[in-house]
Amino acid sequence: MTQLLDVRGLRVAFGGKEVIHGVDFSIATGEKFALVGESGSGKTVTALSLLGLVQNAQVAGSARFAGVDGAQARDLLSMSERELLAIRGQQIAMIFQEPMTALNPLYTVGDQIAEVLQLKEGLTGREAWEGAIAALAAAGLPEPERRAGAYPHQLSGGQRQRAMIAMALSGRPRLLLADEPTTALDVTLRTQILDLLSEVQRHNGMAILLITHDLNLVRKFADRVAVMENGQLVEQGTVAQVFANPQHPYTRKLIDSRPVRDVTEEPSAPQPPVMQASGMRVSYPIPIPGVRGWFRRGSFVAVKGAGFSIAPGRTLGVVGESGSGKSTLALAALGLMPHSGELEVMGQHWGPDAAGNKAIRRMVQVVFQDPYSSLSPRMTVEEIVGEGLLVHEPGLAMAGRRERVLQALAEVGLSQDQFPGLLQRYPHEFSGGQRQRLAIARALIVNPSLLILDEPTSALDVTIQKQVLKLLQRLQREKGLSYLLITHDVDVIRAMAHDVVVMKDGDILEAGPVARVLDSPQQNYTRTLVAAAA
User: Fold this and answer.
1) 8 Å CB contact between 43 and 6
2) Is residue 88 classed exposed, middle or buried when 0-12, 13-18 and 19+ CB atoms within 10 A define those classes?
3) Of 81, 180, 425, 441, which is the most buried if we count CB atoms within 10 A?
4) Looking at 123, 148, 172, which one is the last position of a domain?
5) How many domains does the chain have?
6) What is this structure's pTM?
7) Which CATH number belongs to the domain containing residue 345 in this structure?
8) Are 266 and 302 spatial neighbours (Cβ–Cβ below 8 Å)?
9) Is the pLDDT of residue 484 over 80?
10) Residue 330 falls within a domain, yes or no?
11) What local confidence, expressed as pLDDT, does residue 528 receive?
């Protein structure tokens, strides 16, 4: 294969501080090359610097990109802005990590793709619009004519990612930079997106630089892989070589970071359930199109007659794709969503209108998916973690409250010895894994019986994910906590759950002990989820 991109001695600095230290790698025409590492390792900065997209950066080294039709290779890093404009989107395109922030919310996805075609291909407005529809169809988006007229917020996560891919591929690039293109997607959608990229790559002969921290994804997708740590490439080779015989300790650490099961398997003597539900149904009002919508509203049923039970010290996992009803079920379990049917906590009726709501609410706490958005940026650690005590123990003196806060922080592995001035710090001063520990401490401080864990590790790197899961496992053993674990990650379910329910379109398709359901699934949908995570 001929060499398409050859990067030598790439160095990137900000304000004189170097963050990328002499990186060397090459990508052949038609090759799928993966750049792997944790957040902060320098993967994205490396890719963006190739196209001059890193603001206020000092970039050195060379990145020779092969010319078209045998023309001499040119150095991307020495090109002017005008020259790079001719390269971006046409010769080299990029898929960004989060399509909701990368797509313009004020324009339809069809308009945004058509704009690329007009600028890069010189098409008329009508031709560009037809090309946008064709690009969406090629990206596997259903009803492309209708979706072209939709705004980004009107599409699901998988549909937005397909729209981003359609935009990136509309200029028929020779190299595609894909920055974590499947991180926010369910396992089945990840497989679909990877299959789509592989199909386009085979059809067009396009090379792909995949940036990710998901080693399972790399194993399935890439031809070669390079491992990045602290701005340096520590190892690279074929996927088979690196995974079978990793040479660097950091590579071995990443490969060994799959969640490990460490839970109490045998239940204690039978006890009343912490939470149980039967026939639980949750619906949303929706507008009805046409004249009928003037007089009444329709209804969308998000959860259809769910039933489950969670025993003390046990974990119930809820797995399914986006839109399956998982998050709605979690909101109902938190007492935040009106529902019909029966839902009880410690034998008491539970819901937004339940008597004794405050007392029950103390028993049921939550840890959300993204601690950066769930923790107030204007509150200190002491205020965040101690907030529950102000509600549930208002008579507690300030000294007693501070002692309880320090105790809760110590339980999750945060101390003032590690972080001087810990109580007066703000969330932005901590890493993602440390912020999630703060969120767990905030939930634990009121001594709950049940924690609802809503995708608690999906926003974290694999090594940090493993640490947080070990913490949750330890806390369950020591405190006898029960967990309702909402996730789309089958590996996390295997590591954490005693029982599991599989949801699709608001229905519970399958339920039972985790080993039976995941090792011998009865439903095709469950088999698809398990196969996608293998």
Assistant:
1) no
2) middle
3) 441
4) 172
5) 3
6) 0.79
7) 3.40.50.300
8) no
9) yes
10) yes
11) 87
308, 346: one domain: yes
Alpha-helix runs per DSSP H in 149-305: 157-169, 187-204, 215-221, 239-244, 249-255
The pLDDT tens digits of the residues spanning 180-202 come to 887 666 777 777 778 888 888 88
- H, E, C per residue of 421-473: CHHHCCHHHCCHHHHHHHHHHHHHCCCCCEEEEECCCCCCCHHHHHHHHHHHH
296 and 432 co-located in one domain: yes
**What pairs with residue 177 in β-bridges?**
94, 209
> 268 pLDDT band (50/70/90 cuts)?
low
CA distance 420 to 456: 26
Q: Please give the mean pLDDT across all residues of the chain.
A: 88
Mean pLDDT value of segment 465-483: 93
Do 517 and 373 belong to one domain? yes
Shared domain check, 349 and 219: no
CA distance 530 to 132: 35
Handedness of CA 16, 18, 24, 27 (dihedral sign): negative
Distance (Å) of CA 504 to CA 155, 157, 336? 19, 16, 22
Q: Is residue 264 part of a domain?
A: no
pLDDT higher at 76 or 455? 76
One domain, residues 517 and 370: yes
| Same structural domain, 27 and 72 | yes
Question: Structural domain of residue 290, as residue ranges?
Answer: 275-533
The mean pLDDT value for 103-109 works out to 91
- E strand or H helix at 135: helix 125-138
Mark whether 190 and 287 lie in a shared domain: no
Give me 289's structure tokens.
């199109």
Do β-strands 450-454 and 482-487 pair in parallel, antiparallel, or remain unpaired?
parallel
| pLDDT confidence band for 69 (50 / 70 / 90) | low
Domain termination site, one of 226, 255, 284: 255
Q: Which residues fall within 8 angstroms of residue 335, CB to CB, at 6 or more apart?
A: 350, 351, 352, 354, 357, 360, 361, 364
Question: Would you state the structure tokens that stand for residue 221, as one six-digit string?
Answer: 């997708």
Same domain, 142 and 232: no
Predicted local distance difference test score (pLDDT) of residue 356: 61
In terms of pLDDT, which residue wins out, 11 or 89? Answer: 11
Q: Is the pLDDT reported for residue 269 higher than 80? A: no
Model confidence over 407-461: pLDDT tens digits?
999 999 999 888 899 999 999 888 778 899 999 999 999 999 999 998 888 767 7
